Amino acid sequence: MTEDTVQFEEKRKVSAKVVLIPWDPDSTEHIERLYDQRVACGWNFDMIEKWRGMQREGKKAIYWIVLPEEDPTKDAKIAQHVSQWPEERNPIFDTATSLRGVPRVPSKSLSFVPVGHISLDSENRDPTLANEREHLYCIATFFISPILRSHGIGRAAMDTVESMAQEAPLLAKALALNTVAKEQFYDTEEWPAYGREPPKVC
User: Are strands 116-121 and 62-66 parallel, antiparallel or unpaired?
Assistant: First the structure.
């Protein structure tokens, strides 16, 4: 793994090109959709049960990446997405009742088709990547629908998460990005040694 730490000294306002909606660890539909997307990603689909507990405890904050209503290409992009992943054609709803361990009121009537997901974590097995006391947080669990890459959606999600992290109550001083090292990713012998196929880029 590589750890790329992004330092920042002042807040940056970004133009939202995506909407981030909290993942609901107690919703069957949310759990199944995240599993489908992690399978498409190629790894960590076996971590969802653990993530459910971390999401409830506020140690992990997984968000769905959703195209905003004002995006004139929204319908076309979603059509592209579901053409590749037809099992994701049905929308899900905003039902998460907590985020970062703090109660929230979900809209419940808001339906959406997520085109990916991203998390902002306050805990990581590597303490150099996330330490809430030191206002260090980790961007992880990042996936964009493969057919929608190169549309700026991933960059918009990163910018939105970074902006959120700088706001209260987090007031992040630094963000770490947890990714697979290039050498490890392309090592055709290492993945089979773990009993896995080489993962797709996600």
Answer: antiparallel
